Amino acid sequence: MTNLTDLGIAELRDGFRKGDFSARDAATAFNDAVAGAKALNAFIVETPDIALAAADQADKDRAAGTLKPLSGVPIGMKDLFATKGVQTTAASHILEGFTPQYESTVSGKLWDAGAGMLGKLNLDQFAMGSSNETSYFGNVISPWRRNTGDTAALAPGGSSGGTSAAIAARIVPGATGTDTGGSIRQPAAFTGISGIKPTYGRCSRWGIVAFASSLDQAGPMARDVRDCAILLENMAGFDPKDSTSLDLPVPNWEAALSTDLKGKRVGIPKEYRVDGMPAEIDALWEQGIAWLKDAGAEIVDVSLPHTKYALPAYYIIAPAEASSNLARYDGVRYGLRDLPDGANLQDMYAATRAAGFGDEVKRRILIGTYVLSAGFYDAYYTQAQKVRTLIARDFDLAWEKCDLLLTPTAPSAAFGLGEKSDDPLAMYLNDVFTVPTSLAGLPAMSVPGGLDAQGLPLGLQIIGKALDEQTVLNAGLAIEERAGFTARPDKWW
Amino acid sequence: MSVDHATVRKIASLARIAVTDEQVEAMVPELNNILGWIEQLGEVDTSAVQPMTAVIPNHLRLRDDVVTDGDVRDAVLKNAPQAEQGFFTVPKVIE
User: Strands A194-197 and A217-222: what pairing?
Assistant: First the structure.
């Protein structure tokens, strides 16, 4: 019998439907894989019983002929989604022990579609980070290692680092991520998997622990493009409980997948050729261009002149929104309370938040508080929101010449744990290619393109017009077919 | 613009985060490094530009003004660090 953990979302769904195996067999295989991969620290909470209960229901539904879209498929859930009755922490101490009494819209849709939950995946604390080194529950270790013989622990990317590590290690077939400035795409690139951030508003933010509300967007991560399309169909959709949710039908992305890009124009933004980028990434980008040409696309040069201002604008807007969103953690309604002897209410707030937030979260709250404070608001926040308008306009002008954009996903392959964690700015710069799309709310995905000389995965990013996830997925699939990326990390965990 | 020790203490107080002297000492150069970098936004001419309000065109919906939720007091209090007799409890705020 096939090793069930080698199957992706589509293969599990279809194999289960054909009767090749039971849902319980699949859930058991993945539960065992999760239990055997503690060294990766990919999970904060494991929920094998929930996975088995969903599997048993799927087996009953198969017998009764009432199959659902994801019956028989177990998945991982980033620990940023509120899950009823299961601890939800955002990888923070301040939410340790928090057990939601409600279910996030996106996770609820996945369970209604028949998926089962293997557990809650580790992440950067409050999704703030690019290496999964800010989690209160410890670093996630990438299953990948350099081929140079050294066994240095590498970053799985962030913030969805538990998700990326778990999929690359094949202990989950697919999982949810969230992306504020690159938190789906960069970890996908670092671990040789696929991930898509849909158009802002496609997936409801209700029940997702908020970081920066004008940027936060959920999306799927999986081994390949088809699996991403399947999961996204079951995550997206209008939700009256999110005021920015788009009231639009969810397309049948999987059914419409096509690798024929005839008539599509692919823009190559010249501003993404940054100084100091490894030659291998440049070479992969050229290869990606050749692959899309081969799929029938026309290549055009485009300019996005405000690209260099995207990161500094992001690091005003995102911390500003975070400082406001994270004001809710007050030691009164949920989560941690630190009440020093004789403390009044104000002391309790300050002590609770000092004890409950990690360094990076505090840093961003302080920056956000500063840029929103009296006298600085216009110089920082308003200016950043104006620059954001210009960045979005750059994309609008580019769409007059092309239908999608192709860029590298990240300016480097995975770096070692500890290599950048002492230098916040160096860490922020890793999101240089992903942040502009987030500021403009556009759909974008990362697909694996190849390995660098050290045997580490490199990703290509496809950016599409608002609501045109289909073209993004199609171009991703065209690259996937031509790249033939089959590399996977050797099991050491 | 840059921050000094007093400013860091002030924003930490506004953000309700207790900080020690050592933490303030470490944060001043760290925050100035980041603020110095975001300063480059000042180069961009935005005199004729409106600030972004919504990335994807959307409209604010109205719904009927009816109760759609409620009667979940115990669930609301379930995760409170301290709750008594159906209320959140906090340290005394008036003498």
Answer: antiparallel
Query: What domain range is A37 assigned to?
Result: 4-260+446-458+473-483
Q: How far is B85 from chain A (nearest CA, A)?
A: 14
Inter-chain CB pairs, A–B, below 8 Å: 168
Provide the domain count of chain A.
1
pLDDT tens for each residue of A135-148: 999 999 999 999 99
Structural class in CATH, domain B5-43: mainly alpha
ipTM attached to this prediction: 0.96
| Inter-chain residue contact B52 with A379, CB threshold 8 Å | no
Show residues of chain A in contact with B61, CB under 8 Å: 240, 243, 247
Q: A68-97, pLDDT tens digit by residue?
A: 999 999 999 999 999 999 999 999 999 999
| CATH, residue A107 | 3.90.1300.10
Domain-located, residue A488 = no
- Look up A135 and say whether it is catalytic: no
Question: Would A67 be classed as within a structural domain?
Answer: yes
Kindly determine whether residue B54 and residue A244, on different chains, have CB atoms separated by under 8 Å. Answer: yes
Exposure b/e, A380-419, CB count within 10 A at least 16 = b:
bbebbbbbbbbbbbbbeebbeebbbbbbbbbbbbbbebeb
Q: Catalytic annotation on A92?
A: no
**Shortest alpha-carbon distance between residue A410 and chain B (Å):** 20
Q: How far is B71 from chain A (nearest CA, A)?
A: 13
- B14 has a pLDDT exceeding 60: yes
**Is residue A192 included in any domain, yes or no?**
yes
In a domain, A75, yes or no: yes
Instruction: Indicate if A78 belongs to the active site.
Output: yes
Contacts of B19 in chain A (CB under 8 A): 354
CB contact under 8 A, A244 and B11: no
| Partner-chain contact B14 A367, CB within 8 Å | no
